[in-house]
Amino acid sequence: MTRKFFIGGNWKCNGTVDEVKKIVCMLNGGEVPCPNHIETIISPPFIFIPMVKSCLRTDFQVAAQNCWTKKGGAFTGEISAEMLKNLGVPWVILGHSERRTLMHETDQVVAEKVDYALSQGLKVCLCVGESLKERECNETAQVVSRQVQAVAARVGCWANVVIAYEPIWAIGTGKVASPEQAQEVHYNLRKWIDCHISCQVAQDIRIIYGGSVTAANCKQIGGQPDVDGFLVGGASLKEEFIEILNARN
Ligand code: PEP
């Protein structure tokens, strides 16, 4: 089974109109593998989504960084899955550790969001990952499988889900997981999926790595058998993102 390499650029809460124009220009001019070999999502802040969508090359898809747990209505400040669908946004990133930690999104809230987004026809990049303390207590596999289990309790079809393993201690810190550490977690998670979801899902689902991925480390991490791509934060705002998109070349 070959899983198509998947790379996401998560801009987080960054950018001005001018900066967005510059990044889109850089992306549009970049030489990258053809869409037969790689799937790419670009995730700007909500407010820039229409602008990015209107001028970004069509082989890159746009993703939101979050959405509401259910149908829209009296939920001030939220963006619903229906709105994303209506705008033609195909992907949403859910469960990012910054939302789990800073916005107190529990496993159950994340699972609710994933379930609802999928039911509305969105594709989901589901983020999971352990804290430094959990890693030091050897709880990584347990934490990551618990986070996926919460989603599995609600979701039956995984065809439109990509899982991003993002150790919290590696996000935005410059402290990247070694290729072996990433491979170990991805391998164990795939094994867990095989036992608790299905053998087919385990074979097909893309598990990507996120946490201080750069042009300098992407080839080694991306060369691991169970690493199917990356979710990139800081480096997705820079020229080096094009090199990262070529990690498997
Ligand atoms: C992220 O935001 O998902 C991320 C991995 O950030 P960074 O690449 O900056 O560590």
UniProtKB/TrEMBL annotation:
NCBIfam families: tim (TIGR00419). It comes from Sphagnum jensenii. Belongs to the triosephosphate isomerase family. Pathway: Carbohydrate biosynthesis. Keywords: Isomerase. InterPro entries: Aldolase_TIM, TIM_sf, TrioseP_Isoase_bac/euk, Triosephosphate_isomerase, Triosephosphate_isomerase_AS. This is Triosephosphate isomerase. Homodimer. It comes from the Eukaryota.
